[in-house]
Amino acid sequence: MSDDPLSLPIFLRLFGHPVLVAGAGRIAARRIERLLGAGARVTVIAPEATPAIRALAEARRLDWQAREARADDVAGYRLLFATTDDPDVNAALADAARAAGVWVQRADAAGESDFLVPATVTRDTLQVAISSDGRAPTLTRILGARLESWLPRAYGDLAALAGEFREAVRTRLPRARRGPFWTRVLDGPIAETVLAGRTDQARVELARAIDAAAAGEATPATGEVYLVGAGPGDPDLLTFRALRLMQRADVVLHDSLIQPALLDLVNREAERIHVGKRAARHTLAQERINELMVRLARDGHRVLRLKGGDPFVFGRGGEEIAELAAAGVPFQIVPGVTAANGCAAYAGIPLTHRDYAQSVVFVTGHLKAGALDLSWPELARAGQTVVFFMGLKSLPVICEALMTHGLAADWPAALVIDGTTAHQRLIAGTLDDLPARAAAETITGPTLLIVGEVVRLNATLGWFHPDGEPGA
């Protein structure tokens, strides 16, 4: 830990103020872009300039003087950005600027600068700045890139909405109640409505909330259900929206197939309720799950219904959402990487390929009364890939039916077990021998059955080997 004092983070209002940039290379171009965004009057002095800076000069968005910068150029400016390739020139300009009362930022010497330019993430009027005080600029850039990808664009809309109603809150609510009011708005259902892309609806709700708060009315508890697809297992396959809602929830209903590493990403204060949903072993019946979601939401909870894969691909998500809609409970749906896509990709088996499969079919392999009522003639065709979900128990039935309806005994087929996780295994074979191969193994994790000529490509395209043994 450094004992040196830290810089003071501030945001400068530069609209209409003159700023000098000495140098016109790549660093200068980045500085100029942000200065123009702040409304500064920019002067650039440099013998040569990048095409981007030349274009801005031609468009009269800045003044470019094609010559070397001199010490007597700095007077009269608010800021100086010394970005030339010559440290001696930058030092001389900095000395002259300080003598004239102008603050300096040297691109070649952060320690010799009066101020620093942080990495920023911008969402409309909302700006997040990151600085290492000049010690690790690459690290700040990396963190900025991560925030850029994580921070939803709609946060800019949320900031704009808050600004739109700021004066109304100031005039209608006493000072002591404004902070708690804005906390409820910006970390509650109204904010979530904005982040879901329904800004007009949020505007109406915010106006009503201000009226209610001004009248001294209690704000009723408003719950919501987030139906989130968690993907096939690897936490890195979560969407940004899924992760955000997982952090917001105060109750989570999760299936057996949800990996512990995924549950670790849920808000640590949230109540966790295991609702089962594994083949022939249901902790709660589907009807009870539906009733529980409705009751929790009506009690004001933010309920996360976390499902493996994609909730609308053999996940019974449609049934759950229909129950919520009928009960008038607000909900959001976040799609996930379905097991078919995730497991096939991690197994190096493309589901479509111009030489082998021009279509792909997703089918449930779940037995009903010991049988599978499927359109076997449609499934037993060359030129396509068939993916069976929940097909381990019915594997012998599936393979026999496909051969009976026309596929060859040596037609490729594979089981992907615990796909996309550190425990992933692949059992590859043919329709004729795959059931026996699977029976010889101990299989406890979720499985996916892929049938088609694309299975052969695993031999050359397989890339994910958690145990370090290609082909294992």
From TrEMBL:
Q: Name the CDD domains for this protein.
A: SUMT (cd11642)
SUPFAM superfamilies per record: NAD(P)-binding Rossmann-fold domains, Siroheme synthase middle domains-like, Tetrapyrrole methylase
Q: Give the PROSITE patterns listed for this entry.
A: SUMT_2
Write out the ranges of the annotated region (Uroporphyrinogen-III C-methyltransferase): 223-472
Recorded metabolic or biological pathway in which this protein acts = Cofactor biosynthesis; adenosylcobalamin biosynthesis; precorrin-2 from uroporphyrinogen III: step 1/1; Porphyrin-containing compound metabolism; siroheme biosynthesis; sirohydrochlorin from precorrin-2: step 1/1; Porphyrin-containing compound metabolism; siroheme biosynthesis; siroheme from sirohydrochlorin: step 1/1; Cofactor biosynthesis; adenosylcobalamin biosynthesis; sirohydrochlorin from precorrin-2: step 1/1
Q: What keywords is this UniProt entry annotated with?
A: Cobalamin biosynthesis, Lyase, Methyltransferase, Multifunctional enzyme, NAD, Oxidoreductase, Phosphoprotein, Porphyrin biosynthesis, S-adenosyl-L-methionine, Transferase
**Domain Tetrapyrrole methylase stretches:** 225-434
Annotated segments matching region Precorrin-2 dehydrogenase / sirohydrochlorin ferrochelatase: 1-206
Q: Which Gene Ontology molecular function entries are recorded, alphabetically?
A: NAD binding; precorrin-2 dehydrogenase activity; sirohydrochlorin ferrochelatase activity; uroporphyrin-III C-methyltransferase activity
Q: Does the keyword Lyase apply?
A: yes
Highest taxon above the source species: Bacteria
Under Pfam families, the record lists:
CysG_dimeriser, NAD_binding_7, TP_methylase
Q: Which sequence positions carry the modification called Phosphoserine?
A: S132
GO BP term, pick one: siroheme biosynthetic process
Q: Which residues cross the membrane?
A: none
Every Sirohaem synthase dimerisation domain range: 154-210
- Catalytic reaction annotation: siroheme + 2 H(+) = sirohydrochlorin + Fe(2+); uroporphyrinogen III + 2 S-adenosyl-L-methionine = precorrin-2 + 2 S-adenosyl-L-homocysteine + H(+); precorrin-2 + NAD(+) = sirohydrochlorin + NADH + 2 H(+)
Give the residues the record marks as binding NAD(+): R26, I27, P47, E48
- Function, in words: Then it catalyzes the NAD-dependent ring dehydrogenation of precorrin-2 to yield sirohydrochlorin. Finally, it catalyzes the ferrochelation of sirohydrochlorin to yield siroheme.
Similarity comment: family membership: In the C-terminal section; belongs to the precorrin methyltransferase family.
Q: Which HAMAP family match?
A: Siroheme_synth
Provide the protein name. Siroheme synthase
Q: Which organism is it from?
A: Salinisphaera orenii MK-B5
